[in-house]
Amino acid sequence: MAHQLHIAYSDKITGAALLAGGPYGCAKGDLDIALAECMTAQSELNISPFVQIAKQAEQQGTIASLENLKSQPVWVYHGKSDTRVGEWITKASADLYQALGATPTYIDSIDSGHGFPTESTGVTCNTTAEPHINHCQYDAAGELLTHLYGELKPKVVAQGKIHPIDQNQFINEGQENTLADTGYLYVPKSCAQGESCRVHIALHGCKQNEEALDKQYVENTGYNSWADNNRLVILYPQTKNSLSPLNPYGCWDWWGYTGADYQTRSGAQLSHIINMVEGLSQP
């Protein structure tokens, strides 16, 4: 989902970090393809079809100019023991970025399962198990934030506040709302007091929304510890589980359950997240 959001809105979002995600356009709007071809592969993927999908979307004006990607940082991560998403799938995302002119950094040296690796929190590093936060003695939040924003000041014990936000106010009229009622925003004291701060969007994975884990993803992935000293506001949008449309695990829409335009600027979830960022940035 972070991949789709970046490709569609690279004029507003200036970099991306992907953890075990497949390439833009992989699912082709089909759940069966998503669960098969976009989860496992026995060899390197041919990314030419995905390049064409992105370029066609650019020509149609449904995503931002792909030229933006050439100057933006991209960080792609795949755990060596990930049994959920195949290594060639994640590698294809990095390869696609490279084909589109970006210079991605690809990390595949950590022996983690399918999850968000942290220094000190979560399940055993090489397992794929809920809450999909893995204790790996590896600070993925710090690594990806440093790659996206440059050298950072040291992390500290988080002293800011986690604020609930009403996500319903950011839904476009006429579009189905597949977000939870409440999302979360971590705000350092300096930002709350009026200092200029950047916004980082932290998207949870499947089975990681509040409905599944309470606030574990918001509190335990390590982002907040880096936010205070570096004037970063961390936005944690939240999905909701549903059977209609079919999304029982609260995944973000990377296969089309919100509609055929799911990976474009008019896609419901992508536009709702952008609305959220822009709305929360207003004084």
Secondary structure: elements and pairs:
Elements (H helix, E strand, L loop, with lengths): L1 H7 L7 E4 L11 H5 L12 H13 L13 E4 L9 H13 L5 E3 L8 E3 L4 E2 L8 E3 L4 H10 L11 E6 L15 E6 L1 H4 L5 E4 L8 H4 L2 H5 L2 H8 L1 E5 L31 H13 L3
Overall domain count: 1
* Beta fraction: 5-15%
Mean pLDDT: 97
Order of helices and strands: HEHHEHEEEEHEEHEHHHEH
Radius of gyration: 18 Å
Q: Please mark out the parts with pLDDT under 50 across 5 or more consecutive residues, or reply none.
A: none
Please give the order of strands in the largest beta sheet. 7-8-10-9
- In oligomeric terms, what are we looking at? single chain
Largest sheet: 4 strands, mixed
Give the helix proportion (percent range): 25-40%
Using the alpha-carbon principal axes, give the shape. Answer: globular
Q: Please report the number of helical segments.
A: 10
Separation of termini? 28 Å
- How many beta-strand elements? 10
Structural class: alpha/beta
Organism: Pseudoalteromonas piscicida
Pfam families: Esterase_PHB
GO molecular function: hydrolase activity
Protein name: Polyhydroxybutyrate depolymerase
